[in-house]
Amino acid sequence: xTITEERRRAYSYADLPDLMRxxxxxxxxxxxxTSTLDVLWVLHDRVLRVAPExxxxxxxxxxxxxxxxxxxxxxxxxxxxGFVPAAWLPGFGSYDSPxxxxxxxxxxxGVEIGSGSLGHGLPIAVGTALGLRAQGLxxxxxWVLVGDAELDEGSNHEAIAFAGPAGLxxxxxxxxxxxxxxxxxxxxxxxxxxxxxxxxxxxxxxDHEALYAAFTAPHPGRPHAVVARVxxxxx
Length: 235
Known about the structure:
235 residues; single chain; 9 helices; alpha/beta; five-stranded parallel sheet; 12% strand
């Protein structure tokens, strides 16, 4: 099977576990990956306006994986959607593989940023939304997936505080909450976003219909944050 034929193969959500099992080796950060699987699938299958043939299209949506230290689920979804061949997956993390332990935007089609160091993705997403608005590109949506523990970083607090008053309505943040955060917040995670003027929703991070409804909820004039709760991370 050629790479072109491989990329045209139709995969479904049910194929994702098999695609993830193709990735072997050490330091896989399995819990970080599996916690994001359903969010990544619903976004790429039903929400994001992205495709392998339009990775450089100025009108494409932008998806930024801030939780980049656990990219296995992301790579599996990219393979399922034809951005990369599934034949790349067994080499995950090896010296000569484009699929590193942190995604590299210069090596992996469909990846918008190099990520892995926690706390950078949301500030970059704010800058991306501002840049698109400055260019008059009002169609593309910007989506960033962060982990709940990342919200302990001050850079994220500043990004949240800025985006609401700036009215960045094309900005969307998905927080995958697996109870990893160090500091509790009165009112939960959404309270922090709401205080800065964001639209918010909290849903079961494994319920595809609930995720889709939250992702597509209207939020005119405001950025939107979705907290996707999943099972607590096990040690």
